[in-house]
Each structure stands twice: as structure tokens, then as C-alpha cells.
Amino acid sequence: MTDTAHILIVDDEPGIREVIEKYLVLHGLTVAPAASGGDSRPGAGESVPQLLVVDFDLPGQDGLTLTRWLHEHGNVDTVKIHTVLRRFSGSPLSPHSRWAQRHSRPLTRKIAAIMAADVASYSRLVAENEEETLHLLADYREVFDDFVDRYGGRVFNAAGDSVMSEFSSAVEATRAAIDIQEALRTRNLSHPPNRWLQFRIGITIADVVERQGELLGDGVNLAARLESLAEPGGICISRSVHEAVANKVSVMFRDIGECGVKNIPTPIHAFLVEWPETEANRA
Fold it and tell me: Which helix (H) or strand (E) holds 126?
């Protein structure tokens, strides 16, 4: 410990010591870190620190001995920070520890109907009128999320204009998608056609991996590729979904056959929803 240290930090976790030390040094204080009480007692000629910041759970008798010794040799205040720091900082981990923690989380597999959606021509809409587009997206996402909830689904990933949802039933996923598109089509009629905010939606059934609520795997990628085949305001489903929902939903489908898509090695047999002729469809 240097003879100019204002604060002595004692914590047996290096990540904790580093966070506290960086914060205090940034505010102009001189800090001496130590892993245990036995390493920390000032030597001959060294000054006693003004403040002791000690791990609340500091193990061993050496922590108590250090605290008592400092109080005997100077008016040293003691702050116990271990519990508070973890509550707010999350207890910093080394890169190796973070990797180990992330990869030790349990993985589970399950069959799910995956619905992928994003907004057609979103970049153009934002470039033309950013504020209006963001407000519209927020409003339309409320409608979107409401129908997902209504049909027993959940949104497991959302970024910008993209939304990934899961359902336990292909029929419920398709019904949710139909109601979403019909509700948003009606809302779009109050805007000029060049300002319509239209989702493309793709749906498939897949065996996916779940980790901490996130769904991963080829099925998630496949749903996204099906979405890219949909028309603005439309829905594209895989053959497995079509087999499950035929004659169970209120729309007809058009078979578009085997389609090659990016990063999927085999073609996808896909179907598009055929909407009844409406003013929105004709525009």
C-alpha cells in the first residue's frame, strides 16, 4: 500500500476490486486494493488510510484483525459494500467466467410454431419521415402484440421493425397473423399508400432450442426466410404449417412451390395467403 492512499479496498474478487478502484480513481482519490486483510496492514512508515472499503463477506479472521488494527491506529471509517455492489453492478465477471456462465445455462428443445415479421420498405419510410414512421411503428406494434397475446403466443425477440414470436399451435399462429394483417390494413387506409406501414409475415413449425427464453435454431431462420417471400401486408407459410391449418382458417392459400432462399441449403415449399379482394389489395 502506498503512503498516500486515501482508501483501502479489500475484496477477494478481482472484478469487484477493479470496478471500485476505477470509480474512485476517476474521482481523484488514491486507492490501494488488496485481496485479503492479511495483505493490507500498512507497513512501517506508511500512513493509515482514511477509509476502509471491505467485502461484507470477507472470509477469515484476517478481515476482522485488519479492521480492529486500523481503528486502533487511526480514525478509519469502514464501509461494507459487497452486498450493495452486487445488487447494482451485477458483480463483474472475467471474459472466461462470462463465457462459462452463458454456456452452462440449460438448453431445452421443443416443437413450436414460429412467426417472423418485419416492415416492408422500412428504411425508405424512415428516410422520408422518421418521426411519423416511428410513431406508426409503435402504434402498430401494440396491435401486433395484442393479437400475439390473444392467440396464446409470445414475442421472444424484437429489434427495430423485426418481431419474432412463438406459438404452441400452427393454427393459432396463422389466425394471429391473419388478424394482425387485417387490422393493420384497415389502419393503413387512413394514410396515403406511399406511407403505409406493412408487415411481411412468415410462419413455420420447427424443432427449436430454447435458452433463457430465447429461441434458436434452423426453424427460426426458416421463418425469417419465409417472411422474405411474403408480399407487403401478406403471409407466407411452410408446407408443414399449410398441412396443419388447411380448412381451419378463414383464408385460401396459393401454392408457390419450391423456393430457394438465402442461407437455407434446400428449397422451401411455401404457400401465400390469398386475401379476398378489397380496396387495400387493389391499391
Answer: helix 122-128
Q: 57, 82, 104 — which closes off a domain?
A: 104
In the chain, beta strands by DSSP E: 7-10, 31-34, 51-54, 77-80, 108-119, 154-159, 162-167, 199-211, 214-216, 235-238, 252-259, 268-274
Domain annotation covers residue 2: no
Is residue 43 helix, strand or coil? coil
Domain that residue 171 falls in: 108-282
Domain boundary among 104, 136, 163: 104
Q: Do 133 and 69 belong to one domain?
A: no
Task: Provide the terminal-to-terminal Cα distance of the chain, rounded to the nearest Å.
Answer: 77
- AA identity, residue 8: L
Same domain, 97 and 112: no
> Mind listing the pLDDT tens digit of every residue in the chain (283 residues)?
444 456 777 766 666 667 777 767 776 777 777 766 555 555 555 666 667 666 645 544 455 555 555 556 665 555 544 433 433 344 455 555 555 555 555 788 899 999 999 999 999 999 999 999 999 999 999 999 999 999 999 999 998 899 999 999 999 999 999 999 999 999 999 999 999 999 999 999 999 988 888 888 888 999 999 999 999 999 999 999 999 999 899 899 999 999 888 878 888 899 999 987 644 444 4
Backbone angles phi, psi at 10, to 5 degrees: -125, 110
